Amino acid sequence: MTRPSIPKGTRDFTPAEMVRRNYIFATIRKIFELFGYQPIETPALENLSTLLGKYGEEGDKLLFKILNSGNYLEGIQNAFPDGEEAFSPASVKALTLLITEKGLRYDLTVPFARFVVQHQHELTFPFKRYQIQPVWRADRPQKGRYREFFQCDVDVIGSSSLLNEAELIQIIDQVFLALGISVSIRVNNRKILSGIAEAVGASGQLTDLTTAMDKLDKVGLEKVLEELLSRGLSPESVEKTAALLQWQGSQEELPVMLTEFLRDSVTGQKGLQEMAEVTEMAKACGLKNPLLFDLKLARGLNYYTGTILEVSSRDVEIGSICGGGRYDDLTGIFGWEGVSGVGISFGADRIFDVMAALNLFPEEMASATHALFINFGEKEVRHCIQWASRLRDAGISTEIYPDPAKLKKQMEYAHRKNIPYVILAGEDEIRSGFVSLKKMKTGEQINLSPDLLTDHLRP
Q: What is the CA radius of gyration of the chain?
């Protein structure tokens, strides 16, 4: 018999893990709503026409495509153009589009843009939304990188105000402060990167430049420069880019250096101005985590046009745990042009891994159950049912062990589920009008009347 398994890059979650994951989601959701953002959901499946071409060449390769239902090979004889080899790029693309019309969403931002255009007459603009759902990428699984993972997105669309960027930075700061994670918030601007492309003589190759730069922390400078050459940048352009990426200086000196470097680029100067405004407003909010201008930050997705953000843990090396940026015309790809938006995405799975590594989850979150009634038999259970209902009415999660098993077995159940309190209400306790409440962590045991039990267990 084949041993059951799941696809690589996906995971099962135990009840204890789900309690902790839900703690992350609830913390993030609370802060999103504190800033006035509203929830939406979109389908796991999107039409491939919605997804293709929105994430750049690399992103398109990572889309999970879904075979059409029914006879998906019908009409395959028409898939190959006359004179084309069966496995030429053109033939493979034609075949793919013939047998698959849908795909799993790669992120939440492009489906959000589709949602906004489709429902524009039902929404109030600027529209502030948050969305907490899974996404899928056909990536190579490795530490901190999964094929199925949750994103927690927050976006505002229909406004070009830089106040939105400052607010999102404040949300980042508050979320990670609430979760106990020390982070570095790095910021750059795609207009600055466009100016750099102009200054190094590669103005028509911005995507090539940013795609390679986005890998700098992963593969190192030498590999990035090799990739730039392979993408067709001239040796002179690559040399100028290398000099810029190797620049050493302080945060205060960086804008000064760039002002000179980008003196002939109107776009680059505009990016520097936006950067200054965003960082000034964000720091005025009293951030608890450092906000750093990172020239090397590129974020390779094609739809970013202004501010770009990326967040990493200062204590665990795991890559980005939050990121996003400004997109000035993402809805234009769906027929509604000139609508600007900005958003960020929290990677819940990597955040979970960071919190687990640093032991940041509250101890009481280890179990969904707060108290367990021991089952001494049918007669005693009748009383326990009433008392358990009273506790649940007070918002205290409560279980009654279903069978009158040996006391040792029931206590082991409470121990394995990390239930903090056990309530013993046997024949003697019922006769005396008291129950025994045992704190599992310390073994301390006290007698209480059922009326006082609720107050004692209330969080």
A: 28
pLDDT confidence of residue 260: 93
Report the pLDDT value the prediction gives residue 230, as an integer from 0 to 100. 92
Residue 405 has φ and ψ, to the nearest 5°, of -80, 175
Query: What pLDDT is recorded for position 405?
Result: 96
Strand segments (E) across 380-453:
398-400, 421-424, 435-439, 445-448
- The H or E element spanning position 58 is helix 56-61
Task: Decide: 103 and 109 in contact? Cβ < 8 Å.
Answer: no
3-state secondary structure of 298: coil
In angstroms, the CA 388 to CA 372 distance is: 9
Q: Which residue has the higher pLDDT, 78 or 451?
A: 451
pLDDT-derived band at 75 (thresholds 50, 70, 90) equals low
Mean pLDDT confidence for 232-243: 91
Structure-block tokens of residue 416: 């394995």
pLDDT confidence bin for 94, thresholds 50/70/90: low
Dihedral over Cα of 402, 407, 412, 415: its sign: positive
Q: Measured between alpha carbons, how far is 29 from 21 in angstroms, rounded to an integer?
A: 12
Question: b/e per residue, 122-159, with b = 16+ CB within 10 A?
Answer: eeeebbbbbbbbbbbbeeeeeebbbbbbbbbbbbbbbb
- For the four alpha carbons of 243, 249, 250 and 254, in that order, the dihedral sign comes to negative
**Which class for 254: exposed (0-12), middle (13-18), buried (19 or more C-beta within 10 A)?**
middle
Contacting residues for 177 by C-beta, under 8 A, at least 6 apart: 288, 289
| Res. 77: pLDDT tops 90 | no
- pLDDT more than 90, % of the chain: 69
Q: Is the Cβ–Cβ distance between 181 and 361 less than 8 Å? A: no
* Amino acid letter, residue 44: A
Distance CA 410, CA 401 (A): 7
Residue 325 to residue 342: CA distance in whole angstroms? 5
- Look up residue 192 and give its two tokens: 């600055």
Element (H, E) at 300: none
Which residues, 6 or more positions from 86, have their beta carbon under 8 angstroms from its beta carbon?
A: 80
In tens, the pLDDT along 172-206 reads: 999 999 999 999 999 999 999 999 999 999 888 88
Helix (H, G, I), strand (E, B) or coil at 368: coil
DSSP states along 112-166: HHHHHHHTGGG--SSEEEEEEEEEE--PPPBTTB-SEEEEEEEEEES---THHHH
Q: What confidence score (pLDDT) does residue 90 get? A: 63
Instruction: Report residue 205: phi and psi, to 5°.
Output: -130, 40
- Once rounded to an integer, what is the mean pLDDT over residues 439-456? 91
pLDDT of 80 strictly over 70: no
